[in-house]
Structure formats: C-alpha cells, structure tokens
Design goal:
There is one protein chain. This protein has 307 residues and is of the alpha/beta class. The protein folds into 2 domains: 4-205, P-loop containing nucleotide triphosphate hydrolases (Rossmann fold, 3-Layer(aba) Sandwich), CATH 3.40.50.300; 218-306, Alpha-Beta Plaits (2-Layer Sandwich). The protein has 12 helices and 14 strands. The strands form 3 sheets. It has a 6-stranded mixed β-sheet, sandwiched between helices. The protein has a 4-stranded antiparallel β-sheet with strand order 2-1-4-5, with helices on one face. It binds adenosine-5'-triphosphate.
C-alpha cells in the first residue's frame, strides 16, 4: 500500500480544470519526482496532499488513512516547502527553530544545526534580511529538521546555487535512505531530479499520464542515434514507438519506447536502417524522456511509454 494514495482527484479553479481524475500512489520510502510542463497541476496536487487545498472531487489517503482524519501527530509527520513560502521575517532563524521544535515530536536539533552550517545560514540574522536563496534554505531546514515521514517539495531548487543544490540533493537522499522518509518533489530542474528520484510521475494538462519506477522508465526508453550512409533514404513515416524524432542530414535520433519488449533493439533497427554507418543505442536521460513526453501529442506518447 502507498504512503500516499489519491483516487479520482480533480480540482477546478472556477471553470479551469487544474487536475482531472488523478490516481496517484506513492510507495513508502520513495523519492517521487513529479514532472510536468508549466501549468500542468503540480503545485495544485502538492497543495491538496498537504491539506492546504481541498479537491473538488476525489479522495486522499495518507499513511493508509483518510487525510482529513489524521491525528495531530500524523499531521506533524508531513512537511512542505513551496517556492515563495512565507516565513516570519521579524524572527531570526534561531527563534523560528525554537518556535517550531515543540510543534514536531521528532524535531532533531542536531540535524537543524548541521543543516544550518551546511547551508551557511547565520542563526541570529533576521529572516527578512535573508536573500531569496537563503530563505529557501531556511525553509528546507525547517522541513527536514522535524524528520518527517512525508516531505512535499514544490520547486525547492529555485534560487539555490549549484553547491547548495548539491548539498540539498545529498541531504534528501540521506533523509530518504536513513529515516524511511518518503519524498514527493516537483521541479523543472531535471538534472537534480535525475540524481534523486526512484519514481517518476508525469502530469500533463491536469492528468497524471504516467507513474512508474525510474528503472522501468529507463528500461522502456532508449535513446537511438543513427548515422545513415550517404544516399540512404530514411523512412517517410516513423513507427509509433519512435518518439521525439529529429533528423539532420544523415543523422536521425529518437527515443525508442517499448525497448524492453523488442528484445534486440539493434536487430530491429537494422530492418529500418540495413546499412547504417553507425547505430548507437543508449539509456535515455530524464531530460530526453521529459521532452519526448511533453512535446506534441503527449497523451499518445505517454500511452506508448506507459503500456
Ligand atoms: P508551474 O510548473 O508553472 O509551477 P504547475 O504544474 O505547478 O505549474 P499549477 O500551479 O498547479 O501548475 O496550475 C495548474 C492550473 O491551474 C494552471 O492552468 C493555472 O493557471 C491554474 N491555477 C493555479 N492556481 C490558480 C488560482 N489560484 N486561480 C485560478 N487558476 C489557478
């Protein structure tokens, strides 16, 4: 059973459908990357999971229990960081930590101190005087120090410098590994997600069109680069399993979906390219997969990948 189980979740803002019939299951201990283009519904979904927005219809269960019936303690085991999340500017970080600690039974002061020094945050600086990046770091500290069972992160990397992003990724991996913390993270920073995630969900126009373990996605999709011999004619119509096809002179590149079903992808490809100058088949990066899913007719593409 998933630590998060959403069924038939829909949300409307007035007439606008932000989420449509989303079924989401996040296994315990997963690091679940929620991907999707701008306006896909990621923030709306995370806000509903956090309980700060009510779905128009559908249900959410967290820790196997109806989300609206969680105890105070269970609520305290969920933390959330959103881009631009308001923090009390008149407090120092030390004061904020002292205020939050009694609210969370599992608050870990030594982890808070460790994160403060890792993030280079000054405990006695007023929060309103922090830079944007420092403010995000402070919010992340306040979300990790309670040692949550479920951590929801909405675009946490925005405004962080490369070193701190790296620290954050390591910190999240450590939390997920050591404490059995489940993390759902939305970000456009695909490079960072690639290093983190073991599950991937793809939201598009409010629909969760794909939700699979990262390993499965990697098995299903391969990146193919072909260089044809001069004079060879590439097929006019490409098979449905070829996604994101790009042609430039003698080169053709695409993502091959269903690669695990095809067995020997190389042999299969030789039917299309009997005498290529070069064929290279390799693991697709998460960025390449995201672009293939997001481009054009995303629904058929995700169906192709999901099946
Ligand atoms: P982004 O990647 O740009 O942050 P997102 O995937 O997080 O986008 P949401 O912020 O959940 O997407 O928005 C989903 C849809 O709902 C969009 O069409 C957006 O315009 C709309 N929307 C979001 N918040 C509101 C609101 N408060 N009132 C009206 N419409 C909204």
């Amino acid at each position: 059973m998933g630590i998060v189980e959403a069924r038939g979740l829909s949300h409307r803002y007035g007439r606008r459908n932000a989420l449509l019939d989303v079924d989401l299951e996040v296994p315990e201990g997963a690091l679940y990357a929620l991907l999707g283009p701008n306006g896909a519904g990621k923030t709306t979904l995370l806000q509903i999971l956090m309980g700060i927005r009510r779905p128009t219809s559908g249900s959410v269960a967290l820790f196997g229990k109806d989300a609206s019936r969680l105890s105070v303690e269970e609520r305290g085991a969920i933390t959330y960081v959103a881009e631009g999340q308001p923090l009390p500017g008149w407090m120092t970080l030390r004061q904020l930590e002292a205020y939050l600690a009694p609210l969370y039974p599992r608050w870990d002061p030594s982890l808070a101190a460790d994160l403060r020094s890792r993030f280079g945050l000054e405990p006695d600086q007023k929060i309103r005087t922090l830079s944007r990046g420092q403010r995000i770091k402070a919010a992340v500290l306040c979300a990790l120090a309670p040692r949550p069972r479920l951590l929801l992160l909405d675009e946490p990397f925005t405004g962080m410098d490369v070193m701190v992003k790296d620290e954050l990724v390591r910190g999240l991996l450590q939390s997920a590994g050591d404490e059995g913390c489940t993390i759902v993270i939305s970000s456009h920073d695909i490079g960072e997600l690639e290093a983190l995630a073991d599950w991937v969900g793809f939201l598009d126009g409010g629909r969760l069109t794909l939700s699979v373990p990262m390993d499965t996605l990697r098995e299903r999709l391969k990146r193919v680069d072909v260089v044809t011999r001069s004079g060879a004619v590439a097929p006019a119509a490409f098979p449905a399993e070829w996604l994101s096809v790009e042609r430039a002179g003698p080169r053709i590149s695409f993502l091959l979906s269903g690669a695990e079903r095809g067995g020997d992808a190389g042999n299969d490809l030789r039917r299309w390219f009997p005498e290529p100058a070069r064929i290279e088949v390799r693991e697709a990066s998460l960025r390449e997969i995201f672009v293939a899913l997001a481009r054009g007719n995303a629904e058929t593409r995700t169906e192709e990948v999901a099946s």
